[in-house]
Design brief:
about 725 residues, alpha+beta, Ribosomal Protein S8, Chain: A, domain 1, TATA-Binding Protein, 5 domains, eleven-stranded antiparallel β-sheet, four-stranded antiparallel β-sheet, 22 helices, about 35% helix, about 30% strand, flat, RNA-binding, RNA binding, KLLA0E00881p, KH_dom, KH_dom_type_1
């Protein structure tokens, strides 16, 4: 592949110079001129600027190309980039400016090309941050994530917050520690009032520190958060890490993924199914701490990423006319840059490749068609799919493909490549008609959407003998697949609901997917409403107890599976008065509710004389209570403790004495305390997740509920 001449597109951004009156701090001394406007930008040597376009967000897009016969040269792309943060200045501005100067001095000693612009609150231009001052951080693209994290750490220290650090060995551990969609970071914030200092730029395409920084108002909060994170990291490292690779990926596709394909799509995949994705020469490497998740990520990567990239190759008759070859190459270079696709050709200029997303390749083809070249011998389109879609795309007895071939006089073949995937190859000589063939082929490609429906509702939604689901599939011309998510891991500090329903149809019928999904969800909701429901009250401290006193939350899935029911277990810290609802048939909900309660800890409510701030209480008691394996929540005059049912009375007395002694230091004291009995109820007195409706306090239903509260189950 290195013998090919490659044209690779890149995009940089130039920051437009703000008005002087808007700047509270500005370290930029030299501005460049672009489109007649002063701005700041830098493109590395060897990259040619081919087009500029002003955006609405204080910047100009700068389109560049790199011409090379070595695809490894794409690593030289390191333009000047910028990131925007919100900053609230609480002290003398000059102190902040000194901090900025120190950071800039340190960064520029390392040749980061760093600058900072701080814009005041009166700036009316469009902004990605909604409040406070706007800080614009400039630096080399590769170093910007590191700079952003260091800046946030410095700001936290300046604001008298406690900052701590964890060495997580390798960047590949980051998404595994974060949990699904960053659920573990949210848990640290809710339960330990500790924030993870990370970069909004993500870990792809940037140098990223192999350290995790934490910040908190209280040192004890950060220390406990750090302890929990280190334990989770050790569990991951001591457990089994699973890795696989997608081999023999075209070097041009790898280059496209690194340079043009939106990294946000890759990040979302890693966040949804905690995993790490890395590109190497000719392959894509995947890592997860779950073999089941790793298999899902591999399939999703092929379906949602590799399958949306296509390649078109043109063969031309040999020509000895140097001027013609130069003009043809120049035209293709212009078209490739315009459509943001990678362009390559052999040294004899006999064939030309274009790699990009389907829409870009279609537009590229139309642009080339408009040039009316007369020397095209052959055209070939290539797509890559998982082999599971072979019957889907070919149709019964290859009917779908035969229909396209008969209409447009082209050849379509399905070939298994060495990576285990299927190549869909469309080829023909009539390059005027083959564009229509490609459009028809794209319409037959699979389009999918996945979502969650409780496993307990699958059978009624499917219907007896599949009657209901067959009707829906025929009505919307879609394929629907149900799966079981019970076996998927629950190792995070939140209970994860994985997608377990897939709706698939040809791309030409994409609009039908949403309609079919709505009908499935409607059927699920209708079935849910006629299910027997048992309610289980769960306090915030009880939630923390279940999270931290169990190795994971897989027991929720086990209870659901054992009793064929659905449990509305919260996915974040619940409010006071929250009730889990357990839905099922016959005695299943009661048995499931009892199984949940059997996991509960003992619970005690303490009322104190004077309101106490949460920070004050946390600062004094969080560490000793946590080391005693006592979970607590506190709100003004109310303290709730949750602890092991096996705790000895003497140990409980020591904990109460500790709390009382701490309160006396601030002229406060315990007014009353009582142990809470766990209960279930079949009476729907309240909406799930909400406080009890106090307007029906004297109703007969409330009396029933109160009688339940006197009984320990």
């Amino acid at each position: 592949m290195d013998s090919l001449d490659n044209i690779i597109p890149f995009t940089a951004h130039a920051f437009l110079r703000p008005e002087s009156k808007q700047c509270l701090f500005n370290s930029i001394s030299e501005w460049s001129l672009l489109q007649g406007k002063q701005c700041l930008f830098r493109v590395p040597p060897g990259f040619e600027i081919v087009r500029t376009e002003e955006n609405s967000s204080d910047s100009i897009s700068v389109s560049c190309i790199l011409r090379t016969n070595n695809l490894e040269d794409i690593t030289k792309w390191d333009p000047l980039a910028f990131s925007e943060l919100a900053l609230h200045l609480e002290s003398d501005n000059s102190e902040w400016y000194s901090l900025f100067q120190c950071l800039l001095h340190d960064w520029n000693k390392k040749h980061y090309n760093a600058n900072i612009v701080l814009l005041g609150r009166n700036d009316v231009k469009e902004s990605t941050v909604s409040n406070d001052e706007r800080l614009i951080l400039f630096g080399l693209k590769s170093k910007l994530a590191i700079m952003e994290i260091e800046l946030k750490c410095a700001i936290a220290v300046k604001q008298h917050k406690y900052v701590d650090v964890i060495d997580f060995k390798a960047v590949s551990m980051m998404p595994l520690l974060a949990g699904q969609n960053g659920g573990n970071w949210k848990h640290l914030s809710e339960c330990f009032h500790t924030e993870v200092i990370d970069s909004q730029l993500g870990i792809l395409g940037h140098d990223y520190p192999s350290k995790l920084f934490l910040q908190s108002e209280q040192k004890c909060d950060a220390l406990l958060a750090k302890q929990c994170l280190e334990k989770k990291l050790n569990d991951i490292l001591d457990g089994s890490l699973h890795a696989t690779a997608i081999p023999n990926v075209s070097p041009l596709k790898i280059a496209y993924l690194k340079t043009v394909f939106p990294s946000e799509t890759i990040m979302k995949l890693m966040q949804k199914y905690p995993s790490y994705i890395n590109y190497t020469t000719g392959s894509v490497q995947l890592q997860s701490n779950s073999a089941a998740l790793l298999d899902i990520v591999r399939k999703r990567f092929v379906r949602n990423i590799l399958a949306v990239i296509s390649e078109v190759r043109f063969w031309f008759t040999e020509s000895n006319d140097a001027t013609e070859l130069i003009n043809r190459t120049s035209t293709f270079k212009r078209i490739a840059s315009k459509n943001n696709v990678i362009f390559s050709t052999d040294k004899f200029k006999n064939f030309f490749n274009f790699v990009g997303c389907h829409a870009s390749i279609q537009q590229t083809y139309l642009d080339i068609l408009a040039e009316d070249f007369q020397c095209v011998q052959n055209v070939r389109f290539t797509l890559e799919l998982d082999t599971i879609y072979k019957d889907f795309i070919s149709g019964k007895k290859n009917g779908k493909l035969m229909k396209i071939m008969d209409r447009k006089k082209c050849a379509i073949s399905l070939e298994n490549d060495s990576s285990g995937h299927m190549l869909v190859i469309l080829q023909g000589e009539d390059w005027q008609q083959i564009q229509d063939s490609f459009s028809l082929l794209l319409q037959e490609l699979p389009c999918e959407k996945s979502f969650f429906i409780p496993e307990a509702y699958h059978r009624p939604v499917i219907g007896t003998g599949g009657s209901v689901i067959q009707t829906i599939m025929r009505k919307y011309n879609v394929f629907i697949q149900f799966s079981n998510s019970f076996q998927l891991p629950q190792g995070d500090w939140t209970f994860t609901r994985y997608d377990n329903v897939i709706i698939r149809c040809p791309s030409k019928n994409t609009i039908n997917i949403e309609a079919a999904k709505e009908q499935l969800l409607s059927l699920s909701e209708q079935y849910s409403q006629v299910q027997k429901t048992v309610y289980v009250k769960m306090s915030p401290s009880q939630y923390l107890y279940l999270i931290h006193m169990n190795s994971d939350l897989s027991f929720i899935s086990e209870i659901e599976k054992a009793h064929s029911c659905y449990i509305s277990f919260p996915q974040s810290l619940p409010v006071e008065g929250y009730h889990i609802n357990v839905k099922g048939n016959d005695t299943g909900p009661e048995r499931a509710a009892n199984d949940i309660i059997s996991r509960f800890g003992r619970e005690m409510e303490i009322h104190i004389k004077n309101p106490a701030s949460e920070n004050e209480f946390s600062k004094g008691l969080l560490l000793p209570l946590s080391y005693s394996n006592v979970q607590f929540t506190q709100n003004r005059n109310f303290i709730r403790l949750t602890f092991s049912p096996l705790m000895k009375p003497s140990q409980l007395e020591e904990i109460i004495f500790l709390i009382d002694s701490f309160l006396k230091l601030s002229n406060n004291k315990i007014i009353s305390k009582r142990e809470v009995a766990h209960y279930t109820s079949v009476t729907p007195l309240y909406r799930v997740g909400k406080q009890l409706n106090t307007t029906i306090e004297n109703s007969p239903q409330t009396s029933i509920l109160k009688s339940f509260s006197q009984v320990r189950i």
